Amino acid sequence: SDVGSQKERVVTEEEWLQKWEMGDIGFHKEQRHRLLQKYLDVLLNGRSGLRIFFPLCGKAVEMKWLADMGHSIVGVELSEEALKDFFSEHSLPYCEEPIPEISGGKLFQSTSGNISLYCCSIYDLSSSIVGKFDGIWDRGALVAVNPCDRQHYASLMINLMEKNSSYLLVTVSYDPNKHKGPPFYVPESEIKSLFG
Ligand code: SAH
């Protein structure tokens, strides 16, 4: 079937950490994503000073861009190296502290306070730890999640959304029988069943 060849695929946490260690991070882009620029108005919907969530954030440059616009940014990422690179590449001073609710988890926060990046698995987070968000930028996140974890991931995202929250999702369209991913192929029908 369509996506059958990817259904059982798993990329482990160790494999992601290894990618960061080896510099095998072709998914990282130095330029802001053109679709975020194009749909920024949809994300903001006339509002200012939003809390915006970046699931599986890597060192996405859009975090700095939105923070500079006056929004507060929260991200989550497995790789500590990614988060430290983010702050150092943007010359942002930060501090580091443990997350009491998550054993082994660390919070990296810009000294100015408007960028908080959680170093842990997304599956360790809940709204009682990070609160709820007015907007979510999902690029390289749902498509990086193992197909068997999509349902869990989607219910978590829904849980992290405020009432009038907007969610921008970028997926990648290709033939899943020819490439193993990630990024995985997530058909539109599945997005509809995951998010309603
Ligand atoms: N959204 C980013 C990065 C995409 S790549 C961007 O646009 O550049 C996916 C990232 O998710 C990787 O950096 C990987 O280390 C991280 N990741 C994978 N599984 C994760 C998990 N369970 N929890 C948190 N981060 C995870």
Structure, explained:
- There is one protein chain.
- With 196 residues, this protein is of the alpha/beta class.
- It has one domain: Vaccinia Virus protein VP39 (Rossmann fold), CATH 3.40.50.150.
- A seven-stranded mixed β-sheet has the order 3-4-5-2-1-6-7, with helices on both faces.
- Helix content is 31%, strand content 21%.
- The mean pLDDT is 96.
Secondary structure: elements and pairs:
Blueprint: H1 13-22, H2 34-44, E1 51-54, H3 62-68, E2 72-77, H4 80-89, E3 94-98, E4 106-110, E5 115-119, H5 127-130, E6 133-139, H6 150-159, E7 161-170, H7 188-195
Which fold name corresponds to the CATH topology? Rossmann fold
Look at the structure and give the CATH class: Alpha Beta
Number of helices: 7
Give helix % range: 25-40%
How are the strands of the largest sheet arranged?
Answer: 3-4-5-2-1-6-7
Task: Provide the succession of SSEs.
Answer: HHEHEHEEEHEHEH
The low-pLDDT segments are none
> Total domains, how many?
1
**Mean pLDDT across every amino acid position:** 96
| Sheet with most strands | 7 strands, mixed
Q: What is the percentage of strand-forming residues?
A: 15-25%
Alpha-carbon Rg, integer = 16 Å
| Secondary-structure arrangement, i.e. CATH architecture | 3-Layer(aba) Sandwich
Specify the CATH homologous superfamily: Vaccinia Virus protein VP39
Strands, total number: 7
Large-scale geometry: globular
Question: What gap, in angstroms, lies between the N and C termini?
Answer: 23 Å
* Ligands bound to this protein structure: S-adenosyl-L-homocysteine
Structural class: alpha/beta
